[in-house]
Amino acid sequence: MPLSPDQQSEIDEARAKPRETLRCVAPGLEAALYTAHPVLDHGFVRVIDYMGDDSAICQAARVSYGRGTKSVSNDEGLIRYLMRHWHSTPFEMCEIKLHVKLPIFVARQWIRHRTANVNEYSARYSILDREFYIPAPEHLAAQSDINRQGRGTTLEGETAARVLEILKADSARAYDNYLTMISDEGQQGLARELARMNLPANIYTQWYWKTDLHNLFHFLRLRADAHAQYEIRAYADVIGQIVAQWVPIAWRAFSDYRLGGAQLSAPELAVLRRMLKGESVSEEGSGLSAREWREFHALFD
């Protein structure tokens, strides 16, 4: 169950009491406020609160640039200019607070983005639910032969079934032992803060995660990339859909210049210029490493 009955009751109550406000609102996001968007097998993402919209980005930019922005004819043109030239400060004027339920191993990747405010569910105070992430068969894969931190071919047949059975059995056994250790029936139960060490990394945790739009875009640029681990990418994709409802103009600019764009190094740019002039450039004569050469060609495949 992605949401507990108490959480669903809280959402229903909040959505049943709309409030008048003088601050700017994003209609697309207002329609989805508090709603849980399912991710993976037991996870979700939902918006708790936000500040600002596309107009807030422009307002901040025009304060900082003064009369220099008079030549920008509309908000979309200004936002695309800011994105294209890496002017990040105006995007920091928008903030969003998310409630996320996610496996602990995904949370440990996520927390590497240290530019957010985070408050996580406390397993010292509360007992964690019996909910574990078990991959769908199509997401079980062998280690990649060419990427030390990536996946290769999908596991099939008996091999996949054996792995799934191990994951399920180990998760259940660890949780049963967790409950046994903290139980105070006929014994002095172990402290929750100690018992939690025996839980596997695929158990679900929850947190509130608040960040500004600039740093959220940085998170999405890395985690919505095709090379990111599937599990965190699933969350990034859902958050991207939320951002598109919140700041649609900024999202389009981000999609064009970051997600769908590419950045070239000086040597790569030099190779491209030579090619555009009609020169045949080989890997040996490019000045690029073998990996740089592969990645350069992958941009145009």
Write structural notes for this entry.
- This protein is an alpha+beta fold and 301 residues long.
- Helices cover 46% and strands 14% of the residues.
- The protein has 13 helices and seven strands.
- It has helices spanning 5-15, 27-30, 54-65, 75-84, 104-110, 157-182, 192-195, 213-223, 230-246, 248-259, 266-276, 283-286, 290-298; strands spanning 37-39, 43-51, 95-103, 117-120, 141-143, 151-154, 204-212.
- The strands form two sheets. Strands 1-2-3-7-4 form a five-stranded antiparallel beta sheet. Strands 5-6 form a two-stranded antiparallel ribbon.
- A hairpin with a 7-residue loop joins strand 5 and strand 6.
- Helix 4 (75-84) runs parallel beside helix 10 and helix 9 crosses helix 10.
- It starts with a helix and ends with a helix.
- The mean pLDDT is 90.
- Its cofactor is FAD.
- GO terms for molecular function: flavin adenine dinucleotide binding; NADPH binding; thymidylate synthase (FAD) activity; thymidylate synthase activity.
